[in-house]
Amino acid sequence: MLSKGTNVSVKVETLVLFGATGDLAQRMLFPSLYNLHMDGLLADTLTIVGSGRSAMDRDAFRAQVRAALAEHLPADRIDAATVDTFLARIDYCAIDAGAGTGYDDLAVLLGDRMNRPIGVYLSTPPSMFGPIAQGLKAANIACAECRIAMEKPIGHDLASSRDVNAQVGDAFAEDRVFRIDHYLGKETVQNLLALRFANMLFEPLWNAQAIDHVQITVAETVGLEGRVSYYDGVGALKDMVQNHMLQLLAIIAMEPPSSVSATAVRDEKVKLLRSLRKMRADDVKAHSVKGQYSSGAVNGAAVAGYADELGTPSNTETFVALKAFIDNWRWKGVPFYLRTGKRMPQRKSEVLIQFKPVPHNIFARVGAGKLDANMMIINLQPEENIRVKVMAKQPGLDRDGVKLKEVTMDVSLSHSFAGERRRIAYERLLLDFIEGDQTLFVRRDEVEAQWEWIDAIRDAWAAVDMAPQNYTAGSWGPSSAIALIERDGASWHD
Ligand code: BG6
After folding, report:
1. What H or E segment, with its residue span, contains residue 83?
2. Phi-psi region of 19 (alpha: psi -120 to 50; beta: other; left: phi over 0)
3. 1, 19, 35, 255: least CB-packed within 10 angstroms?
4. Which residue ranges of the chain lie beneath pLDDT 70?
5. Alpha-carbon distance 273 to 254, whole Å?
6. What pTM did the predictor assign?
7. Which residue puts its alpha carbon closest to atom 14 of ligand 1?
8. CA distance linking residue 109 with residue 50, whole number of Å
């Protein structure tokens, strides 16, 4: 368990889920809630009210949830009696958030529950966050003990994120607002905190004196996945870097927090995010690459190009590579190379820490040649492991000189914790939301610092009229992404 950095420790008794008939709710949220229910982690008193625009009765909605569980959970998690007791918690209320109707019906349905803590979870288009918060306030469903959770994105730039935060903030105080970045719910991302701050081994070297550079890769094999209307015009920078990758970067590079409380961790993350050097028109071409995939093959199957999937040419980037700098004492001069893309050759999220070479090679005179600098590779998904590359002496009598070789110290987390069920990120996040622990949720100042850095890149792109370069689906991005790092004498770890 990461923390009990709780600000609002009262458990909610009612969870109201907006967007309950949508894809995320069906694929992730209901299966996660079911898993928590099955493991006895939800209080008997917890009721879940689904809400969507369609009018339907409770039974029709329960049937929909039943079908979603069957489709999205492994067969061995489905137990008929448990499904029935789970569905018995569920009710439904139609609300048209756009039209602002249905809140009074919700208030009637909630009845006395209105006086006890309610958690409202928004899995809706982001344009609805402000209006829903306001609608809840007007119907008195934003009580002092109520809280609200929102999916990303919060706005589409700094100004709009401030508007959304202000509208939501007018109905719910900041310690009642839970902004979701589902990467923070991933066990392996939380494990970065354990790796850095529960071990003495790495932290003394975690700085510009010992580290040459850091690489963060989040590669996906999927393409548009039918999300045309959302993705086009958004692109990889806003979809992945603004949130998930910057959160990863913050956890990897922040100063040690004094505890794992919500305030301590988020204070350090925001400090780090504010230390990111802003790109400008005069360095954006050297420090960033935009790409868009054309047709190719991924995992042996032919796939269409982005513009073909879309049915029209587009300037949206499906790949981005960045060279970022953190202007503080710890990271002075250390490049952080970030890259993320769709239709890459494999799905992998990985952090690579490239250490500097030893200051003096004592083996040079006895024929050992060049020493490879140490490297630590942290695989976040799909594999969960940590590998450290170190130099070792090859066994032998060394009559022709000492032979040194790079060997790998390999810690497989999946293996070390083989008996533990890997939980869906949303199980953790939903439970923390219900229990009121904000540590793994993004604070307003973090989101705004993230947008500030992203906006600077977008402004610089616009100033130099940067268009995405083509890359073949199934490759590691445009050749200029390779040049971005190779110019510095390093290379991507593919
Ligand atoms: C989402 C993005 O936030 O994260 C998607 O909108 C992306 O485009 C997804 O595919 C990746 O999440 P995961 O958990 O599969 O790495």
Report:
1. helix 80-87
2. left
3. 1
4. 1-9
5. 9
6. 0.95
7. 183
8. 12
Q: Which amino acid is at 385?
A: N
pLDDT of residue 5: 45
Contact 120, 151 (CB under 8 A): no
**What integer pLDDT is reported at residue 412 of this predicted model?**
85
pLDDT of the residue at 228? 82
Contacts 24+ apart (CB under 8 A), 391-396: none
* CB contact burial 344-355 (16+ within 10 A = b; e otherwise): bbeebbbbbbbb
| Residue 475 CA to ligand 1 centre (angstroms) | 19
Instruction: For residue 12, give every residue at least 6 positions away whose Cβ sits within 8 Å of its Cβ, in sequence order, or none.
Output: 46, 117, 118, 119, 146, 147, 433, 434, 436
The sign one gets for the Cα dihedral 417, 418, 419, 422 is: positive
Closest-CA residue to 431 (of 178, 209, 110, 139) = 178
Using most ligand atoms within 8 A of CB, pick from 32, 220, 383, 423 the residue to mutate for ligand 1: 220
Which residues neighbour 187 within 8 Å (Cβ) at sequence distance 6 or greater? 384, 422, 423, 425, 428
How many other CB atoms sit within 10 Å of the CB of residue 330? 16
Q: How far apart are CA 302 and CA 28, in angstroms?
A: 28
Question: Which residues surround ligand 1 with Cβ inside 6 Å?
Answer: 220, 239
User: Looking at residue 2, what is its pLDDT?
Assistant: 54
* Atom of ligand 1 minimally distant from the CA of 186: 14
List the Cα angle 434/120/147 in 5-degree steps: 65
